[in-house]
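User: Can you help me understand a structure? I only have the sequence.
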Amino acid sequence: MSKNQKKTVALCTILALSFGITPIANAMHIMEGYLPVGSCITWGALCIPFLAAGFFSIRNKLRENRRALTILAMSGAFIFVISSLKIPSVTGSCSHMTGTGLGAILFSPSAVSILGIIVLLFQAILLAHGGLTTLGANTFSMAIAGPFLSYAVYHLCLRLKVNRKVSIFLAAMLGDVFTYCVTSLQLAMAYPSESGGVAASAVKFLGVFAPTQLPLAVIEGLLTVIIIIGLETYAMPELRSIGFIKEKEVY
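Assistant: Let's start by predicting it. Here is the structure, written out as tokens:
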């Protein structure tokens, strides 16, 4: 990013902190009207710097390489389709795959924040999946927290010389699981347990999510590996153009 872009992201971070830090920060797709107003504002504000960084990341990537648009659009479509297949779970929420690990691996977690908020906005309006008031909370858990962990896990595995496909699987799976850990925390902060507070409530939410979400996370990891294999077979030039496959690597 240029110096001006970095200044803009820093300014957004300051604004997010000024609006987002509250004594009680209440908050994956959490349904419309399920969170208190303060919680909706808090999580929405915390998303601002990530979205600003994501906008600059995508703009710079497309400016350098227009061929990246095809893979970027495919990543967004994958998120939309796979996260629309939902299974009812905790009251006011649901379990489903996220699809964000693919974009985080191919591009960057900040770029996925833009893809994610677009997907969540369309799902809230067209499918009544999620909500407009809870858009900030859903964006933070699915389009920010999960992708950042996926990106970190993938690059950590590569540094440790783990097989690329295993790295992709672990990144996508753990990013999905982490999304629901964050969602459970958001719900727990909005509805703390009378006996054990936020911690006890978070454990209860995680316990309800786990039976459906853990198998879905494994499936998402496998699907992500399959898609990467397909891209390596039919779109190798595009993968090289975005830097996912280095020129010296041979398949």
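Now, to help you interpret it: The beta strands are 87-88, 94-95. The longest helix spans residues 197-234. Let me know which part you'd like to focus on.
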